[in-house]
Amino acid sequence: MATRFRNVDTALIHAGEFESRVEGAVILPIFQSSTFEYTGQTSYADLRYIRLNNTPNHQVLHEKLACLEGAEAALVTGSGMAAISATLLAVLSSGDHLLAQNTLYGGTYDFLTQDFKSLGLEFGLIDATSPKTWGTHLTPQTKAIYVESVSNPLMQVADLNAVVAFARQHNLVSIIDNTFLTPLFYRPLEEGFDLVIHSATKYLNGHSDLVAGAVAGSSRWIQQINGRLMHLGGSLDPHACFLMHRGLKTLALRVRQQHATALAISDFLDRHPEVCRVYYPGLSTDKYHRRATELFDGFGGMLSFELKGGEEQARRALKRLKLAADAPSLGGVESLATRPVTTSHSGLSREAQQQQGITDGLIRFSVGIEAAEDLIDDLKQAIEG
Ligand SMILES: *Cc1c(COP(=O)(O)O)cnc(C)c1O
């Protein structure tokens, strides 16, 4: 178990750091060396080699992330999808069945729908907000249940405590993608989940300058997932490890401000006469507010909204925004806005988009760390223009 720190702010800076500084350097240098001297290791996985995810730049991240998630162990990966695919391929074997939330991140949904069959795997999609419906989707081969802490782009908050209880009752491995909330606002392992996954591309790194992933859980699971990852080759390069390490240290400062600004923006949008719907669990009128308040320490920096003028007004507003770039992805220090039908959810069929409520006029906003007042002024002129 990683050393416990009383406060997350301190853990972010000090957890996992090496006791002796390399040449006195205050910051861990980048070990840009593919291989390391043989020192008598007796197993392949203990040899030091970048693909085996065990250079000093990996080690410090593993320890720090394990501490943040309250996990025995953690592993960084070459992308969020590498973490997701390696985890699912470690947990599931040919013939197994997975229950997954029906609002999955697009890449995860594509992995299930496009690759599972050829791997001999099966899945069923569940409404994760409705526990009473889950039982009908179980099969004798169901091995695991997979959900997200806040869904994209409509910010649905599943009944996560029920997911843990259901997994225990049916002997399933419970897995959660906690990208949107980060360990600052939600620590799923403490609530009983077996494995927590992140696209570290988003908030953990926080600067929109790399692609990375992470998974945390018991040492036994992490060892098995690392085994898969070594074979699939999805390791994180030491330079990307270094950048992620740097980004991670300011996680608390960034996401606290993003959360506070998202609250202010959602409140502004909620009152604006041109806005017909706001999706943000921090709003007291939001459908998931009560559950999110019970489960989480904060609501994060992602929100979506719909304009009365539909697609045309949404297109115009995106063009008029001066601070937020019209771009997919999220979780960086700069605000981003996108119409999910053109980016993150363009892979879904029209029917699936409509079924989920992802309309042509929906705008998703990833709140950065610019001043709330400036972001609100910018949104105001964009909506009213
Ligand atoms: C971006 C994202 C992923 C995929 O991560 P990559 O780093 O792009 O591979 C997975 N889950 C969620 C919720 C995401 O936002």
Supply Rg.
21 Å
Looking at the overall shape, the CATH architecture of the largest domain is 3-Layer(aba) Sandwich
Molecular shape: globular
Strand order of the largest sheet: 1-7-6-5-4-2-3
Helical coverage, percent range:
25-40%
How many separate domains?
Answer: 2
The helix/strand class is: alpha/beta
Text of the CATH class of the largest domain: Alpha Beta
N-to-C span: 55 Å
| CATH fold type of the largest domain | Aspartate Aminotransferase, domain 2
Largest sheet: 7 strands, mixed
Elements, N to C (H/E): HHEHEHEEHEHEEHHHEHEHEEHEH
How would you name the CATH homologous superfamily of the largest domain?
A: Type I PLP-dependent aspartate aminotransferase-like (Major domain)
| Bound small molecules, deduplicated | pyridoxal-5'-phosphate
Quaternary structure classification: single chain
Number of helices: 13
Total strands: 12
Walk me through the structure.
Helix 2 runs parallel beside helix 8 (238-248), helix 3 (80-91) packs across helix 7 (219-232) and helix 11 (310-320) crosses helix 13. The chain is α/β, with parallel strands linked by helices. The relative contact order is 0.13. The strands form two sheets. Strands 1-7-6-5-4-2-3 form a seven-stranded mixed beta sheet, sandwiched between helices. A five-stranded mixed beta sheet has the order 8-9-12-11-10. The chain has two domains: 8-248, Type I PLP-dependent aspartate aminotransferase-like (Major domain) (Aspartate Aminotransferase, domain 2, 3-Layer(aba) Sandwich); 251-384, Aspartate Aminotransferase, domain 1, CATH 3.90.1150.10. The chain has helices spanning 8-14, 56-69, 80-91, 106-115, 160-169, 182-185, 219-232, 238-248, 251-271, 289-295, 310-320, 350-356, 372-384, and strands spanning 73-77, 97-101, 122-126, 142-148, 173-177, 195-199, 213-217, 275-279, 302-307, 325-326, 336-338, 362-366. Helix 5 (160-169) links the parallel strand 4 and strand 5 (173-177). The protein is built from 13 helices and twelve strands.
